[in-house]
Amino acid sequence: MPKLDAYFRAMVQQGASDLHLVAGNLPAMRIHGELKKLKAEPLTDEGLRDLLREIAPEEVWARFNETGDVDFAYELEGVARFRANYFVQKFGAAAVFRTIPSQVLTCEDLGLPDAVRRLAYLRKGLVLVTGPTGSGKSTTLAAILDEANRNRRDNIITIEDPIEFVHKSQGCLVSHREVGTHTRSFAAALRAALREDPDIILVGEMRDKETIALAIEAAATGHLVFGTLHTQNAAKTVDRVIEVFSAEEQPQIRSTLADSLKAVVAQNLFRRVDKPGRIAALEVLIVTPAISNLIREGKTYQIPSAIQTGKKHGMQSLETAILALLEQKIISPREAYEKAVVKEPFVRFLSEEEREGLA
Fold this sequence. Notes:
Blueprint: H1 4-14, E1 16-22, E2 28-31, E3 34-37, H2 45-55, H3 58-67, E4 69-76, E5 80-89, E6 92-100, H4 107-110, H5 114-117, E7 125-130, H6 137-151, E8 155-160, E9 173-178, H7 186-193, E10 200-203, H8 209-220, E11 224-229, H9 234-243, H10 250-260, E12 261-271, E13 278-286, H11 289-296, H12 303-308, H13 318-327, H14 333-339, H15 352-358
Parallel strand pairs: 7-11, 7-12, 8-9, 8-10, 10-11
Antiparallel strand pairs: 1-2, 1-6, 2-3, 4-5, 5-6, 12-13
Helix pairs in contact: 7-8, 8-10, 10-11
C-alpha cells in the first residue's frame, strides 16, 4: 500500500480540503480554510520523491521529471478521489492534493438557489461558474450536472484536467475525458465533442482563446455548455471572455455571446463562525433580453445595476449574498469585508479597531 494513503485517509477523517507536501517543510493540511502543519519530520527531497513516485503512473512521473509540473487524479477506493499537482521548487519536489468527495453533493445539499438548480434544465447556451481558485466552482458544477444526470435523458461529455467528480450514468449517458490522457487539449476535445452527439458539455477550465471560442460556438449551435473561469464577478466574467479576442473580433464575439450566454454564477468560499466548515456566497446573473442587449452594446458596466433589479429572475449580487450570511452570523465581518468586491456596505460591521486598520 502506498505510504501516502495514510495521509489521504487522515485528510478525509479530518475534513481537510488540501494536503501540502513541500521538501524542506513539515507536511500541512488545509482544514476549513486554514493551513495546519502536522506533527512530523520535515520532508526531504529524496524522501518526498519516493512517496510521490509510488502513486504516479509511469507516464505522469516521466512528464513531471521532464517539465517540473504535472496534474493527475488519484483514487483511493472507498475513501475519495484526489486531484494531484506535482511541482519543483527551490528545495526540491512538492505536491498539493485536493480532496474530491466520492459522493457528489446535490443542489439541495449545497443550498444552491433555485435559479442555479434550474440551469441544469436549459436546452442550449453557455453557463459559466467563476471565482478564485479553491472557491468551490467544481463542487457547484458537479451538483448542477448531477441534477441533469438524474432528471434528463441526454448525452453528457465532460472534459477536465484532471477528471474530478465522477458521475455514474443515471438518466443520462455520461462520458468523462481527461486532458493529457484521453485527449491532447481542451480545444481538441471540444472540437471532437461536436461530432459525438452531445446534449451537455462540461469544460473543466476555459484556459485560452481557442477553447473559449469553441465553447461559445458549441453553445451557439444548440448545445448546453458549462465552463469555469477565474473571475471575481459576473460583469468581469463577461469582460474577460470578450477581452481574450482581438479588437477586430470583439464585435462579432460580443454579438454571439449576447445570444448564447445564459447565466454566470460567481462565487467565493467563507469560513463559518457558527460551526466548523465553509460556505459559499453566490452572485447569480441570469441573461435576460435586457442583459443580452447590454452585452451586445458593450455596456457591461451596467450589469451590476441590472443584477440588483433582477431579483424576480433569480438574480442576486455577491454583496447581497455575503450580507445575508453576515446578518445570519454565519461568517465574520472581517472576511466579508476582505472578500467583497464592493467593500463599502461591510465597513459598518467591522470593529473600531478593524476600521482603524483600514486607514
